[in-house]
Design brief:
248 residues; MetI-like fold; single chain; globular; mainly alpha
């Protein structure tokens, strides 16, 4: 089925290219493999270098976001007082798209020496934090009540209930939140790199290829690299999920 889907996509691509300026698939493939390890003349970097720059920002920001969102989501679901403090703020800020933070981020972090880098990391942090927090919070809050009651009947301390019941039950929420958050973060960094001059990154590469004369083959090759990196990130997380939760 996947092969049929790829064949159908390629056919539609050729069909659309016949009536538009969209480059043909084989032209994009040739450009993609040339730029993969050969520096393009405008920015002097390969697609691998651009992807590595974007990936570094995403992983840095996502690691920071997850290290806060996961424990905060579990504790907030477990503590009613903390829930009443945290959830109104989350529900107020969560609907704001990460891209809406871009202008404000560049203003807030303007005094810092590396404004662009810090601002982009912040934007990815926003994109990765909220999906992860909500997923972890929901799974932690929905622990089966009978398990909690049984533990309390045997007078298990709250610390053990949290460790032995709530945390294992929250594991699915953690894995789902990380997958979704990383995906949103990856989309956010591409857009953030198009707004300000970062010097490198896939989003900046695509923007520059447009500005220097609309090099459509290079633009689509950059988009293909974005999709390829995103696909393999998701694939690795699915593999990790099967290792952590083999019963699924």
């Amino acid at each position: 089925m996947r092969l049929r889907g790829a064949i159908l996509l390629t056919f539609l691509w050729y069909l659309i290219s016949a009536f538009t300026d969209l480059p043909l698939p084989h032209e994009v493939a040739e450009t993609f493999f040339i730029l993969l390890f050969n520096s393009e003349p405008v920015l002097g970097k390969t697609l691998v270098q651009h992807a590595a720059a974007s990936l570094f920002r995403v992983l840095t920001a996502s690691l920071l976001a997850f290290s806060i969102a996961i424990p905060l989501g579990i504790v907030s679901a477990w503590n009613r007082s903390l829930t009443e403090i945290v959830m109104p703020m989350v529900e107020a800020l969560r609907p704001i798209p990460p891209l809406a933070w871009i202008p404000l981020a560049y203003v807030i972090f303007a005094p810092l020496p590396n404004t662009v880098q810090v601002s982009q990391i912040f934007i990815v942090f926003v994109g990765a934090f909220f999906p992860c927090f909500v997923s972890v919070f929901d799974y932690s809050r929905n622990v089966p009540e009978e398990l909690l009651e049984m533990a309390r009947v045997f007078r298990a301390p709250e610390r053990l209930i949290l460790r032995d019941i709530v945390l294992p039950h929250s594991l699915q929420g953690v894995m789902s939140g990380v997958r979704i958050g990383l995906g949103v973060g990856w989309m956010s960094i591409i857009a953030a790199e198009m707004i300000a001059t970062s010097g490198e990154g896939l989003g900046y590469f695509i923007l520059v290829m447009y500005e220097v004369g609309g090099r459509t083959a290079e633009i689509v090759a950059g988009m293909a690299m974005i999709g390829t990196v995103g696909y393999f990130m998701n694939w690795l997380l699915l593999k990790a999920e099967r290792l952590v939760m083999p019963w699924r």
